[in-house]
Amino acid sequence: MVEHIVLVKLSDDVTGDQVDELISRTLALKDVIPGLLDIQQGRNFAGRSQGYEIGMTARFEDRTTFEAYLPHPSHQAILAYLEEIGLEDLIVVDFDTN
Q: What angle do CA 40, 18, 24 make, to 5 degrees?
C-alpha cells in the first residue's frame, strides 16, 4: 500500500465556506479514483501547525494506483480549486507501507 499525506497552507483570504468545499470535493475522490482505499481530510486544530491549516491522508492499493491518481482529472480539479481559492504552500509525503 501507499500512504499519501498532504499539508495545506492557504492565504488569509480563503473563507470557511471555501475550506468546507475543498474538504467535500476531496472526500468525494474516493468514489471516483480507482485504487483509492481511504481518504481523510480536515482542519488542523494544533497550535503548532506553522500555518498549515488542512491535513489530508489517502491510502492506495499500490504504487500503480497511486501514480494513476496524480494525473486523474478529478484530482487535477482539486489542485485547480486550491490554486483558485488561494493556495500558499503544500507539504507532501508519500511512502510504502506493508
A: 30
Nearest to 53 by CA among 64, 40, 42: 42
For residue 58, give the C-alpha cell.
489517502
Q: Give the pLDDT confidence of 35-47 residue by residue, as tens digits.
A: 999 999 999 998 8
- What is d(CA 1, CA 62) in angstroms, rounded to the nearest whole number? 5
Q: Which three cell numbers stand for residue 50?
A: 506553522
For residue 82, give the amino acid letter: L
Helices 73-85 & 16-27, crossing angle to 10 degrees?
Answer: 170
DSSP state of 31: G
- 14, 51 in Cβ contact below 8 A? no
Low-confidence residues in the chain, pLDDT < 70: none
